Amino acid sequence: MAFKESEIQKMMKNLDLTREEAIQLLQDDEDDVSVELTAEQKKVVKEMSQGDRKKETAPRKRERKADDGKRFLIQTLADFLADVSRNPVDVLNVERELMFTYNGNRYKVVLSKPREKKGE
Questions:
Q1: How far is CA 61 from CA 58, 64, 65, 68, 95, in A?
Q2: Which end of the chain lies in a sparser environment, N or C, as judged by fewer CB atoms within 10 Å?
Q3: Vertex 117 angle, CA 115 and 118, to 5°
């Protein structure tokens, strides 16, 4: 059987094979597929090929840990800005954002904590 050149090139590149090895692998794969399977075997093959792609029946609810450091920073900023602006500060999210007025203008401060890069 003749195989598409693109298939042969893909096998050669991805698996670091010679042209002959890639053609042999494609022939072996084709021979394996041509074997007749029972209904039960087809069911098992289908389940195994789906692997991790099966959808979960219920979405997972991720439990979020409280970040005391962020809470402290937001509260400290809120206290400071309330003193400076002489206006009340609205804490919209105790770990993330606050709003305040200064010289007649509204401002919003959003605190973010980037994730640490692996290896650092």
A1: 9, 9, 13, 21, 20
A2: C
A3: 125
